[in-house]
């Protein structure tokens, strides 16, 4: 039960990761235009968020239960730590998911065990989604909305493949509010605190020494 709830929670808030890696060049562009394009490409962050680092504390409700979730990221989202705590029927659940260097580490902080597998962050990469993936997920921008003092893009999603629909408030690709449902399961996630571009210690992306890691 514990594993199924955690897995469902991850699917609801994450769903899919998809990066649009395609680039196009026009040989007829002038030298000035070519220089401008190269400059813009150089300045664009090479990650899933348009800010270098962040710490977001969320209040989360799913299946009638409250969870505490903290997302910490650096290097434009190429390094992430998602820390989730909850209590179910008197049992404490504390999981940490770390993504870095092309691997996903899923850690059970209570049992002191973890797994390592090849992959990238499961969180939706709104900054780099391909047009094809956006159409498949029926993503639509509904305008902007103020939240936690930030001007956010309000996006709707109707992903029939996973029977998921709902709304996101995104600040530079970072989800600050999610109101979604997948089938009969409803979930609300609201950021209560957001720190933009803080200094993040490297240790937060390291595996604790007391964790027995399999899949290495």
Assigned CATH class = Mainly Beta
Low-confidence runs (pLDDT<50, min 5 residues)? 1-42
Mean pLDDT: 82
Overall tally of structural domains: 1
The first-to-last residue Cα distance is 26 Å
What's the main sheet like?
Answer: 12 strands, mixed
Apparent shape: globular
Summarize the structure.
This protein is mostly beta strands and 216 residues long. The protein is 15% helix and 47% strand.
What can you see in these coordinates?
By secondary structure, this protein is mainly beta. It has one domain (2-20, 47-214): Lipoprotein localisation LolA/LolB/LppX (outer membrane lipoprotein receptor (LolB), chain A). 15% of the residues lie in helices and 47% in strands. The chain is built from 3 helices and 12 strands; from the N terminus they run ααββββββαββββββ.
